Every structure is written in structure tokens, then in C-alpha cells.
Amino acid sequence: MIKALFFDFYGTIVHEDGVIIDEITTIISNTENGANKLIIGSYWWKVFQELCMNSFGNNFKTQKELEIESLEMTLEKFESNASANELSQKMFKHWRKPPIFEDAANFLKSCDLPYYIVSNIDTDDVVAAIQYHGLAPIKIFTNEDAKSYKPHTELFEMALKETNLNPQEVVHIGDSFIQWV
Length: 181
Known about the structure:
The chain has 181 residues and is α/β, with parallel strands linked by helices. It is globular, with a radius of gyration of 17 Å.
């Protein structure tokens, strides 16, 4: 029997940061080398994903730290003199007040099951976004709590342990297929 729902947050309940990423890659592409913003975005995403996969346990870094680091690497690769800190501020602002998917908001208002947020975003940012939209999850579990990023299993294992639920009692709802590592 399903006793609870675990939700990813960005891309599932609220919009991802695609508009901001487009804006940032456009700024980076306006350099002397004129690199295509799709190539820039692809490189940036690859670097960011690699940093996340290597960030766990004693080597854990927050998403904000990894975002700045990946931007610095991207700016260097594409010879842009833009500021990683200034560009990342656009991302951070979005993470705290992202637009909500109306169907998700309506579902959560009418949901009879307890629901939890299980997110790769930093705790302060997801809490701010949840408060901004007036949502009421039972609890929020983040990368910072687990010192690990999805698809590593630590975040899910921690959420199951703290809720006293087993995998057969929970449905995880997200915007991407997760292959546990």
C-alpha cells in the first residue's frame, strides 16, 4: 500500500532554470570566439554533472559552490571575461522564486497522502521556494542533508529511513529517469 509521495522539486513542481541558463549561455557566447550557446550549455552541464557525481561524503560541496565552479570552468574554456559570481546570482535568484506548474500546485492542494520533497538543490533555496509558493510538505530532504546528489542512493535512503517507510510504500515523482548508482 502506498503511504506517501516523494517529489523531486525543480522540473516537477516548479520550473527548472532553462530560461536563466539560456540567458547565461547567451552572455558567454558573446565573446570573441563566438561559440554556439548550445555547445556552451552542453559543456557547462557536463562539467556540472561531473562535479555533482564527485561531490559526496567528505568531498561534498553545495550546489551553489558547484554552480560557481562549473561556471568558472565554462568561462575559462570559452574565453569569456564574464563573472561567474554575477552569472550565478541569476541562477540563485531563480531557485528561490521559480514559477510553479499549476497542475502540480492543484495536485498538491488536493492530495490526501503525505508528501515529502527530495531535492538536489541546497536546503535554503528549496525552503525559500516552498515558502514562496505556500506549499506544505511534511519534510524536505536535500543534497546537503545526505552529503550526496541524486542519482547516488544516499538521499533516497535517508528519506526512507527518516520517514520509517520502505520503498514499496512510496512513489517517487520526478521529471527524469533516475538510475541509482
